[in-house]
Amino acid sequence: MNEKLQEFILKFFEQLGAHVETIGQTVIITKIPSSFEKFYGKEAPYRFSFDEKVEEFEFINQNSFLIRSINDYLENSGQTTIVKINFNFEPKKKVFEKEPLMNCKLTQVQRSSVERFIVRFTFSSTFQYLNKKEVLTHHINVKDGKAIEFDFDYYDLVDGQRKEVEKEFIKEGYGVAKEKLQELLKPKTEFITDDLKAKLESEITRIKDHYHSDLKEAEDKRAKLQKRITEEIDTYQKQRLQEELKKLEETVWKDQEKGEADFFIKDEVQKHSLHLKNKLINTTIIYYPFYSLLAYLDVNGKVKTVRRTYDPLDDILEPLQCDCCEKRIPEIILCSSGHLICRMCGGRCETCKEIVCKKCTLRECTRCRKSICAHCEVQCRKCLKYVCRNHHTINPQTQKIVCMDCLSRCTRCGSLTDPEFLNEILEQYQKLCPNCSKESVKKEIFS
Hints:
Blueprint: H1 2-16, E1 19-23, E2 26-30, H2 34-40, E3 46-49, E4 58-59, H3 65-75, E5 79-86, H4 91-94, E6 105-129, E7 132-143, E8 146-148, E9 156-159, H5 168-231, H6 235-257, H7 260-271, E10 275-299, E11 302-311, E12 316-317, E13 346-348, E14 355-357, E15 363-364, E16 371-372, E17 378-379, E18 386-387, E19 392-394, E20 401-403, E21 408-409, E22 416-417, E23 423-425, E24 430-432, H8 434-446
Parallel strand pairs: 3-4, 5-10
Antiparallel strand pairs: 1-2, 2-3, 5-9, 6-7, 6-10, 7-8, 10-11, 11-12, 13-14, 15-16, 17-18, 19-20, 21-22, 23-24
């Protein structure tokens, strides 16, 4: 009795989501939902013993208040418990815990979260057959429309707030839980059904054999009585035999007409029927934060951001993909434009030697033909072509950026000058900059 009682209590608290620690004939129960604590009238921890001699533990037997409380609690179907899972982790350590930073430094991580939910449905299934009664309790967890395995003992649970919980998803989860319950009950149901079927067939055979034997015996007896009646000379004795025959026919064949055998067969069918009753005794809503981590990375003084999600329940970080080829990346490499890339999609700017990728806008310097990144390219304000840093200058006349091809050299001083400002002296085959042109005019005046 103690073993069955102990098993009943332990199973109840385990399926309630409490933490159960068993030591011999004693048990310590913690992390009990507040709904049961209020119902029982006592806060955790509970220290129970199934051995009356153990001190400092509450002795439990069949008549204990605990047993009555558990039975009453189970009868109060449809109770809802709300709990929250607490997670503690360091965002800066977690965000790139599996991907080394190759060309950048992590400066800070901002985190935000939304609530994700698991609904635990606790069902009591009662099997009744052959004057027997078996009660099983099943604990089914539903997350995102699917039944999952979930162990309370691995997590830090606290009482949740009803205002933080949305219950629209419970109805859908209940349907999933019922399907899973049928799946779990199927092996036992089939086993009991097959056993009952075999026993019923045996009972039907016994009933049929019994009535067949009784009928054969009655027919033999009737034949003998009819023979004796034919042979009997004494009138009184013959009358007595006829009455006996009539009584035999009234009892045996009349019972056959009434279908007595069928009645007993139907009775056995009823006895060997399986009656299964499922009852929802508790719904536990478990919610937890699903995080979005925004990492700030320093790349040569420039700040870039990378966002990824983190599911602490399964300890899963959202995989990071290369912005170019979309393949999963094992390390963090950022190009000069802030794209997250793999090694196959990266390259170098031929001017500044910074990392560039296929998503970056690369141009070709019209002067040296080198590939240049967006940080190195310069557009000539005169011809609108792009050149690298080494092949542009400032137009001395307009103070605008121009390429080297859009300037000409003064034939006298050699300085670069906007062709529009060169003074051409045909007889001397010279093109003079404004300064040299002024000097030339002065010499002509004073010569």
